[in-house]
Amino acid sequence: MGSHMEIEKCTGRAVNKDWDWNAFTTESNNPELVRGQMRFVGSGGSSKVSDPNTLPTRSFTVSLVHTPVGRYAPAHSHECVEHFMVLEGYMTVGWVYGDEVIEARLGPGDLVLNKIGRPHGFRNDGPDPALMTITVGSGKPLPPAYTFDPEGKDPAQARAFGAAPGKTVRLDEHSSDPRHQEFARNIMRARNLAFVRSDEGWLKADYVGGDGIKPGGYTVEMVKVPAGAASSANAIGAEDVFFVLEGALRVFWDGADGAQATSLGIRELVFNPPGQRKRFENASAGDVTFLRYVGTAD
């Protein structure tokens, strides 16, 4: 088999995938809960754990979720961390504290890391459809544990993630309330990213890990590669993913039999196995932006 085919088996391309509008089968009987999922790495918290069109993983999943205006995900929790990063539109995310809910509004480039066991949900209040990347911090996460199942419940309270009237508050990032402080610590706004330029000319900012949110099993970085810039080859003892948001990225795998290469466009990724020596370059005329996810070392 040619070397190009080896790296190609570890790529995921949106143009080759379909939206799954029945990914969360326990919610499919409620039209307000229906949203589309596109899986790239792992099952993404859905029940489709045997999907042959996703890449196997140990540390984390990567998927896109499309949420039409008015739709929501009910309050639930996981045995591992889970993050939402908004790519298009705006999302309201709620964290549940007893009978109260704190809500935060996220815009493009904003990320929230939902902590282990913390009940949370999301809702699209409009005015446009929303697109997010969602990552769950396990290769095979358990099904979500619903803390306020909408079945047979008051629809307005279900949309409020279980909060009764008067029990919802907006996040105050400057509050002395420890609940607000905890929520705020786990949100990274795009406007607060601190980019550092490498000696090779590309830039990196931490979303999760490093100077970003305290990690819970994997890290997330945003990398910007100006036209003509490239990285040197390196290998790490953990699986990692490059997911392109803007531009076209060229990725190389170096090995004893020579280099393998693939090109990634918008909403395309490559999954780099642990120990794989790789490098990237931007040979296009425009800038490239991609997310890098890094799992835990073996």
The count of DSSP E runs of length 2 or more, i.e. the number of strands, is 22
User: Which architecture of the largest domain would the CATH scheme give at its second level?
Assistant: Sandwich
Strand content: 35-45%
User: What is the CA–CA distance across the termini?
Assistant: 28 Å
The 3D shape can be described as globular
Annotation field: number of helices: 3
Describe the structure.
- With 298 residues, this protein is mainly beta.
- It has two domains: 3-191, Jelly Rolls, CATH 2.60.120.10; 192-294, Jelly Rolls, CATH 2.60.120.10.
- 6% of the residues lie in helices and 39% in strands.
- The chain is built from three helices and 22 strands.
- The strands form four sheets. A seven-stranded antiparallel beta sheet has the order 1-20-17-22-16-15-14, with no helix packed on it.
- Strand 18 and strand 19 (258-264) form a beta hairpin.
List keywords for this structure.
22 strands; six-stranded antiparallel beta sheet; Jelly Rolls; 298 residues; seven-stranded antiparallel beta sheet; globular; mainly beta; 3 helices; 2 domains
Topology:
Elements: H1 3-8, E1 11-13, E2 36-41, E3 62-67, E4 72-77, E5 82-88, E6 91-97, E7 100-106, E8 111-114, E9 120-123, E10 130-136, E11 145-146, H2 155-159, E12 168-170, H3 178-185, E13 187-188, E14 196-197, E15 203-208, E16 219-225, E17 240-246, E18 249-255, E19 258-264, E20 268-272, E21 277-281, E22 288-294
Parallel strand pairs: 7-12
Antiparallel strand pairs: 1-20, 2-3, 3-10, 4-9, 4-11, 5-8, 5-10, 6-7, 6-9, 8-13, 14-15, 15-16, 16-22, 17-20, 17-22, 18-19, 18-21
